[in-house]
Amino acid sequence: MENGFKLKRKRDGFIQYYNQRESKLANLTSHFIELIVEYIPDKNTIAIKVTDTGDGFNHQMAFKTHNENDDFGRGLKLLKEIASLVQYNDKGNEVYIEYILED
């Protein structure tokens, strides 16, 4: 959702954010999320690609404006910490992630 991270920083912002989100989800008619999971044996890696038909988000700005004390945004940082590769498309509605499996 556009400017979700800004809204969440406001007093009662989480409530407003989730109310807006719930309303938008209830009115969806033709959008979808595509999930592709692939095992890459020569790299002993699981690759995951998630694409949605939404507007995406500014992933670069989300990383720049994240504050360690925020109650949100930890998922993006967690992905970068546990995955061997995280790539977003320019629009921000697709992410490609690789996880190396332990031997």
TrEMBL record:
Pfam families, from UniProt? HATPase_c_2 (PF13581)
**Which domain of life, per UniProt?**
Bacteria
The Histidine kinase/HSP90-like ATPase domain covers 37-97
**Name under which the protein is recorded:** Histidine kinase/HSP90-like ATPase domain-containing protein
Q: Which organism is it from?
A: Psychrosphaera haliotis
